[in-house]
Write a structure and sequence with these properties.
Elements: E1 6-7, E2 10-11, H1 15-22, H2 26-33, H3 41-54, H4 60-67, E3 73-76, E4 85-88
Antiparallel strand pairs: 1-2, 3-4
């Protein structure tokens, strides 16, 4: 199921739209948006032109989810004495 963002009833461009139009991967679009290295200047320019053409802006909710870092993992426990999940660090 695809999520669409709308403003005044118009569908906003997604990172997938940009990648498809520029004929690149989503990761390449992400690298351009985040000003990461390892993107050839000509390719960066092509992707940036599509970003501008589609008036693409990153989804702030997706950016927040991507920024979350977890330092621990939870696992169910077989020990009935303990309630909830055990933490592995």
């Amino acid at each position: 199921m695809k999520s669409t963002r709308t403003i005044a009833g118009l569908r906003q461009a997604t990172i997938t739209d940009v990648a498809t139009r520029a004929n690149v991967s989503i990761k390449t679009v992400s690298r351009v948006v985040n000003a990461e290295p390892n993107v050839r200047p000509a390719l960066r320019s092509r992707v940036q032109n599509v970003i501008d053409e589609l008036d693409y802006s990153p989804n702030p909710y997706a950016r927040h989810l991507g920024s979350l870092r977890r330092n621990d993992t939870t696992m169910p426990t077989a020990n009935r004495q303990e309630r909830g999940a055990s933490r592995v660090r």
